[in-house]
Amino acid sequence: MPYSGGLNRNIVQCLHDYGIPLYLSHTVTDIRGERRLEQVVVSQVDERRNPIPDTEMVFDCDTLLLSVGLIPENELTRQAGIEMDRRTNGAVVYENMETSLPGVFACGNVCHVHDLVDFVTAESQRAGGAAARYVLGGEVSPDGALLTVKNGGGVTYTVPQRIRPGQVEKLCQLFFRVNRVCGDSEILVTSGGARIAGFKREHLSPGEMEQISLPKVLLDRAAGELTVSVREVEGK
């Protein structure tokens, strides 16, 4: 890719601090060696990620590490018949991390891949608290407003995917990722074409999960669905 899919602080602390070069828009096109790895060939790629001829660089090395990313493990989730989100490969959840199967909650990397364990911890606490309330009070009544959260321009997914405003006490946290690197931008939350909220950001990257908090008073004004999108500020 033409940008890093990882956290910027990892690039600084793990690469820049040790003088390790990072070749964006490049890929390994050949691996050489007899009894063990001796060289790798790295080539530049075009916008379709196809190697560009005559851009090869040969590096002497004895180890090649592959970063293949994370995919949530949800075999049990699917076996239970829980609704899945093809964008996250995790379960569709409500504002309290409850899945489409009442009394079953999902959180952490099984729901969507996180950057930091801090977010996993906070999400697990939210799911655990909701599970305890379910045990004590039973299933949430299906009556009341229901908002479907959708990803608009520049956004790849949102979690939670559904919000019941009546179950929100003060704030509802919303997590998402963008699909490109953006400079000065505004995160827009709309409902029925009307602006509900806006949040300023100086930098957005696909490798960094974003979060916003929506007050209950704003959720009560929405109807049917919420759309989260990103708009870069012109002239910046």
In one word, what is the shape?
globular
Rg from Cα: 22 Å
Q: Work out the strand percent.
A: 25-35%
| Strand-pairing-aware structural class | alpha+beta
**Sheet bearing the most strands, described?**
5 strands, mixed
Helix content: 10-25%
Q: Average pLDDT, to the nearest integer?
A: 91
Instruction: Give the tally of β-strands.
Output: 13
Q: Give the strand line-up of the largest sheet.
A: 8-6-13-10-11
Count of helix runs: 4
SSE ordering: HEEEHEEHEEEEEEEHE
- Which stretches are low in confidence, meaning pLDDT under 50 for 5 or more residues running? none
**What's the multimeric state?**
single chain
- How far apart the termini lie comes to 23 Å
Q: What report would you give on this structure?
A:
This protein has four helices and 13 strands. With 236 residues, it is α+β, with helices and mostly antiparallel strands. It is globular. The model has no long low-confidence stretch (mean pLDDT 91).
Provide the descriptors you would attach to this structure in a database record.
236 residues, alpha+beta, five-stranded mixed sheet, three-stranded antiparallel sheet, 4 helices, 13 strands
